[in-house]
Amino acid sequence: MVDYQKTAADRGASSLETGGVDFMLEVNIKKELPGFSLDVAFSIEREILAILGPSGCGKSLTIQCIAGLVRPDQGRIVLNGKVLYDGQLGINLPPQSRKVGLVFQNYALFPHLTVGENVAFGIQHLSKAEIKDKVTILLQKMKLQGLEGRYPHQLSGGQQQRVALARALAPEPELLLLDEPFSALDTQVKEQLLYELYELHNYYRGSVLFVTHNVAEAYSLCSKMAVYGGGKLLQFGGKQDVVEGPATLEAAKLLGVENFLQGIVTWQEGNEVWVLVKGLDREVKAVVGDNKKIAKNQPVILGIRSEFLRITASSSENTFSATVSQVVEEVTNYTYCFNFPDVQDLHLVARIPKQEGALLNPGSAVYLNLPQDKLFIIT
Ligand SMILES: Nc1ncnc2c1ncn2[C@@H]1O[C@H](COP(=O)(O)OP(=O)(O)OP(=O)(O)O)[C@@H](O)[C@H]1O
Fold it and tell me: Matching PROSITE patterns, A to Z (predicted)?
């Protein structure tokens, strides 16, 4: 997965100059709707948070509560020390008083206004000269120079979404809310915009909440991830911790983990845990974080992302004899499905970069390694 945070950092880009403002967002809200209840709490500080989850899990509702478009039933939302909503104190600021920018999937530009007029829409209180300067800078940042006089219908989807971003940024919001902003765009345009959005974050400096279904898209852009399921926060944390160490089976599946093994804990020493894998009748070693203690004989599920399995030349720790049952050739990987001799109902999927070896045909026997630091344990 591309990591734009790393690529920008490698070039020495910085988003850390905040002029003394904290850019802290605290959200703790409950909302009951017919047949659905939302109950989430999280906080972020001057960073990009991706909210990830299946359709109907409450992602957009969270965004709408923060933007002031939907009133929660209970809780509190605080942005940079300003209370936007407090159920007990009866505070519920209107959207225009929240300093929050919002971009939806479907651009929502004003069709009768030009690109320049759309971008200037939220900054009419400024002088003409200030508006002109700001629009010029934003159009330049969003690579829209020369398109200022066009109308939305004269723009491509990617250009329209850039205008929507510029319009949201013009009033200098302290928080930018992006609700599936790229889902209507094709892959190439989406990737370009993801990169530009990350670049833009260096300029913008505030926090960003980014709603998506797509794990790779989330990982590329965010530093933190919130995984939603059925109106609840299943997991929240740094993106690598979340993607490589899902806390529950539901979160793991939502995060695209394909490989799960049942087992029983046989031994723990420090952060190393040995698990006897059902069916394989062999132990694997996994590394757990945060000094987590797991009782001996406790049934657990081991998980590992398909990208982390490796084919090795010989048998060693955490390595099993396996047979290729299916292969799919992709642009940069071979995706293999493996069976295990004498074991029913156990299949593992591995994505192996092509440069790591020639194509293996179905029926090939290999050693399959499950790296201990990439195996995670769900109790
Ligand atoms: N105004 C509303 N009135 C009643 N129910 C609503 C309203 N808005 C949303 N819901 C319901 O709340 C739940 C969460 O909706 P939400 O739009 O937040 O989902 P989502 O996670 O953003 O899904 P998607 O990815 O499909 O956009 C859904 O069951 C939806 O039907």
Answer: ABC_TRANSPORTER_1, ABC_TRANSPORTER_2
